[in-house]
Design goal:
It is a single chain. It contains 11 helices and no strands. The protein is an all-alpha fold and 282 residues long. The radius of gyration is 22 Å and the shape is elongated.
Length: 282
């Protein structure tokens, strides 16, 4: 893997450590309010300053990292499951099944993502009314973001399965009497895992950005809990007078997007099926 990939992996490792341990490094909890210390700039006590309620920005950005990364990875994994299922079945069975599934994919693709996400979040909030607020909002975001992010994955998987289905080793497996389900799960999917892994890597920063937008407009995570979108929304109103309130969560989002894109580019070069080939084993 090239140098940019190692830089991206190192940045992601640092972000993971920050998300898991960052709020424990400082001297204050993310939800601890000290009004007398409100709107302070960075100092030895408050490394990234404080917000309007005197809460430690370092702890809140770290807490936001934990929530934002969890939602992004969870929603991307959910979209991957849907995309693998629909794309794999469509590409492998072909014929009428392929046509009907692809028309459904085209229909979903034609809908505005943000509008669908907002509608799904509202429906899921109502359906998960008995779940505690933070977990309800996290689960709603995971399902809503995953519910619109699978379309591109399904199209990619369908194309890869159509290509792999023509390989000689698939015909040999058919001749040996291997069942379709086992052939798809045990052999075709592992052999097309490279491009899928690259797509998974690129989908995570897209999910982070979408979650930030949804939380920014007030439909995602809500105070006193924090995500990067919530922190950016809180700091936006006072951006001219107290730029640190919006600078640090925005910087965290930018670094995360950069890290995933660097890693994704490196993985794409490393796992490019045009170089390595798709079907290599039975």
């Amino acid at each position: 893997m090239r140098l940019s990939g190692w830089i991206g992996a190192s940045l992601l490792l640092g972000l993971l450590v920050f998300a898991l341990l960052g709020d424990r490094m400082g001297s204050h909890r993310f939800d601890e309010q000290r009004i007398e210390h409100s709107l302070q700039g960075p100092s030895t006590e408050y490394w990234l300053g404080t917000d309007a309620l005197g809460r430690d920005q370092w702890a809140r950005v770290a807490a936001g990292a934990k929530i934002s990364l969890l939602i992004a990875v969870g929603s991307t994994f959910f979209s991957l499951l849907i995309g693998l299922g629909l794309g794999g079945i469509s590409g492998y069975l072909g014929g009428r099944t392929d046509r009907w599934l692809m028309r459904f994919v085209d229909l979903v693709y034609s809908l505005p993502d943000v509008l669908v996400i907002i509608l799904l979040i509202e429906v899921l909030h109502a359906g998960l009314g008995d779940v505690p607020d933070l977990y309800r909002r996290q689960l709603a975001l995971v399902l809503a973001l995953g519910g619109v992010g699978w379309v591109s994955i399904a199209r990619l998987v369908r194309g890869l399965v159509l290509q792999a289905r023509e390989e000689a080793w698939v015909e040999a497996a058919h001749a040996l009497g291997m069942r379709n389900r086992r052939l798809l799960l045990r052999h075709i999917f592992p052999n097309i895992s490279g491009p899928i892994l690259v797509t998974f890597t690129f989908r995570i920063p897209a999910a982070i950005l979408t979650e930030s937008i949804v939380s920014f407009i007030g439909l995602g995570i809500q105070p006193p809990f924090a995500s990067w979108g919530v922190l950016a929304s809180d700091g936006f109103a006072a951006m001219r007078s107290y730029p640190h309130l919006v600078l640090y969560p925005s910087l965290a989002i930018s670094i995360t997007l950069l890290a995933f894109h660097l890693l994704g580019d490196a993985l794409r070069d490393l796992l490019d099926p045009r170089v390595r080939g798709i079907g290599t084993r039975v």
